[in-house]
């Protein structure tokens, strides 16, 4: 994350090319080890839309946001607990709802198995009713694991961010790098994609923020080589929590931009 952007740009093309060559040489093994992020188990509890009041925060992404068996709710559980313990009143928002009882607000916009383009196609449907103050975006793993035009994954991320910014111009948007993976081919794609994210985020203005999620996890934190263990999700929750604390206003309601019209000078009565 601290390498100069120019060096990242130079390395990106070479790394993607190397990943493509490696895939060609090991297509059978890579295919077997490249599942999409899977759906959560039936043990996850589906509930109706909730409103906890307070600041509206949308967790947005794939199964890393949705939660993966046997840890429904994923990082949202630990994040909720940290926020409420710190005295923040938060309303998780989204069209999806699942998670254990200790997750006080189950709403989210995590879609297991989804790619960047699939999220992008639904922003206009999700954002008006959700009206998020803050968005936590973690997406791209399925693009890499499905070998879905991975060289242009950063471009798709940039378009998604533009779409979010247009749908919610005043929101604080936190964009995370994706976690590591155990498979060597997939991990090379992860590193190349993550290397491009800082430049994408930097071009999107002061209300779009980079979150270094990759740096917080190792392959020891993965339950299946892709999805985190419970301890891994706890680390993710801590990263999101600290990122929110570092962004002024992300945990505060938006202030109204409407100003009352100043009254004119009073007229003396004749």
Protein described:
A hairpin with a 2-residue loop joins strand 2 and strand 3 (about 70). Helix 4 (about 75-85) packs across helix 10 (about 230-245), helix 6 packs parallel to helix 8 (about 155-165) and helix 8 packs across helix 9. Strands 1, 4, 5, 6, 7, 8 and 9 form a 7-stranded mixed β-sheet that branches. The chain has a two-stranded antiparallel sheet with strand order 2-3. The chain is built from 10 helices and 9 strands. It has a single domain, classed as Rossmann fold (3-Layer(aba) Sandwich), CATH 3.40.50.1110. The protein has helices at about 5-25, 25-30, 65, 75-85, 115-120, 125-130, 140-145, 155-165, 185-200, 230-245; strands at about 55-60, 65-70, 70, 90, 95, 105-110, 135-140, 170-175, 210.
What's the layout of helices and strands?
Elements: H1 5-25, H2 27-32, E1 55-61, H3 63-66, E2 67-68, E3 71-72, H4 75-85, E4 90-92, E5 96-97, E6 107-110, H5 116-120, H6 123-130, E7 134-138, H7 141-145, H8 153-167, E8 172-176, H9 184-202, E9 208-211, H10 230-246
Parallel strand pairs: 1-4, 1-6, 1-7, 7-8, 8-9
Antiparallel strand pairs: 2-3, 5-6
